[in-house]
């Protein structure tokens, strides 16, 4: 856990926290994970994507539109009942996403019941006339992919991402729920417990609360004055009858759009959709009132935060995404203002005065929320920073934004547009947003609008949004929450009568196609080679990838490679890498990237996204930053001071205290992983320490480069050898593997967090095996039974579905070449923490005593095996997945080897592995938030 907190710069954490809190997207299972080289990232709910340009569609006799977009045939069809269908083939992997979006969100909810759309989204998983909640969950789990839903101000979307051979099954599930649901009192009573846990989790985030309050001020007395989350008080008053009425009013084919993307045949999808949805009757939906906000009554919001760093946020009304031209202008403006060459970054971040400074828009169809914010360390003058930020924006507005800046922003947005197409799930998000939410014929209209934005448009918008009477200010000041408390271990194993999770019989239309489990074949063909200097190059050619994506990782472990009295040198180095190269200073380097519309990051994890025609130039710039960083002495002191101030706040924060409490519970007191930076260790650094650390850690023999794109591997190798071939490694050997550790003993820790109304709980233990051990796959199967497949899993069913104790519960293995940890995580009210923990421990004891059922075995095998193709359904999943396998010293086709193992495992082998390795009595518990009751 310490790695997750300390190895990222505070600016990344801060920006990510604000972005996550402000999107106002709520779902039935909105868990997420951070991407890293040792972990393949799941597809996120990404921003809508756009295609390369508008095309003129052809129309068939039956009303089906066919358009040639980006070399693919995009088929659009509107059924007689009004259901819109869009099919976008993409053959990157044998995967498909089916996304059904209903054009109803929180804006249609009664102001007294703001979370109605969100609550109904939850109830859509509770069963229909012909399908029980258990059957829906079991089918979703057996599909083996991602099953989720989310609600925004404007829409509610339900999606399945799974092997494309099961697209028909997913479509049938969508259709069954469109025919009608069973919103019973009993089901709502159970689900209300879970959704209120979700509300408590969100309201435990000061950023979330601040954005909620800002929205209420900016859009008072409009449907956008509240977000999609809802409140605990309103859910207490919500009834099943109200939810059923909301469904009957808005959930109708003519108010929905079905988007299917991936490795599918468009005609077959349209035919299947016509069969499944064509007989569902439609009705008119109520007319929506126009959104007409009144004159703004701006008031300052001041709040505490436990994050260890503070925020000063200016919020203002921004164009809705349906205002295509204005929204495009907003996107270009944000890109200009966020450019590292610009005054906002230069004067506020590069100068060392703040940790981050950003400008952006949180989208909604008719009422966007614009934000300009700074992140500052504890003790900083927040009001002074706000004054400076306002002054910088006024200065930019006065001087005007040049045509060159506009052109650079457009090039960057065009590259982002192309790169965002390289995801099957992302394609569904892109088209659903464009067609269902924004009412466009194609996402291409958004890109066309961006290309038409002028400097005058951008300057006019900036002058409007910087007016003090047009904005709301929120200031979140860091404050502490008290010292952690630790105690003894768990009191012992519980005695009970073991019970297997009930078997669920599926309807024939699902049971037959899902019954046979076939181990997949790898669809990508990575070309693996090494340069003479030891650098490993993996090239993945694919004509389904539109941009060129480069992902790099240098194996490193700061816990081992930093001198004991110089902890924090890795973070200072990471920040100094942003200050140019020996060939280009900071601004000149960014200008070179801007000239080709590329984006790049440097460090032990580095990346490049670029259009194919600019690959050679982009690779040259990436290599320049990695191999020839300027590390200027002039930048050292401001960065050092900023890092010391940031660290002071961070180590006082509950997040850090929780991670340290967990680490101390798991590892010996002298373990290297317990070391961390302090303000004193950072202020004691010298510039020479930073350069020495760079030379020690940045070495080709520890580096892997993955290139994904429509490229020739031989050409890529030539280009990489030209730019990285002269890089030489030191004569010594890098030590980056932490020593194995003995099994831990149980302990319990409480970390106060005044900002949280809900507790965040971690239960963890060290395991004495690694990924190469024969039992590792059996334990993965056991974990799949516990929490894989979400609602069909034992713990989701016991903790959420049946008792409403938690909103989410997750579990998994944190692995390296020498260590493995089993970690459970859940969020619950203080009075539910102990009961949830008891049930988790009971589930582990049960799995050691009694073999899982045949149904659970089949479901776990199906889930693990069928999710494997998703590792190749986006460029990022391919890149990070390969880096993960290198980090763990695994063959590149490890997931496919694992599939064969999963298929041959039996219940007795899983039981034996759990009994041998899992120790329910030795779990370390860390609770962050109010004291458990």
From TrEMBL:
Query: What is an example of a Pfam family matching this protein?
Result: Peptidase_M16
What's the family? Answer: Belongs to the peptidase M16 family.
As one GO molecular function, the record gives: metal ion binding
Q: Which UniProt keywords apply?
A: Signal
The UniProt regions of compositional bias labelled Polar residues, in chain numbering, are 31-42
Q: Which residues form the signal peptide?
A: 1-27
Q: Gene3D superfamilies of this UniProt entry?
A: Metalloenzyme, LuxS/M16 peptidase-like
Which InterPro entries does this chain map to? Metalloenz_LuxS/M16, MPP/UQCRC_Complex, Pept_M16_N, Peptidase_M16_C
Stretches for region Disordered? 31-59
Superkingdom of source: Bacteria
Annotated Peptidase M16 N-terminal domain residues? 87-231
Residue span, Peptidase M16 C-terminal domain = 239-413, 685-864
| Name assigned to this protein | Peptidase M16
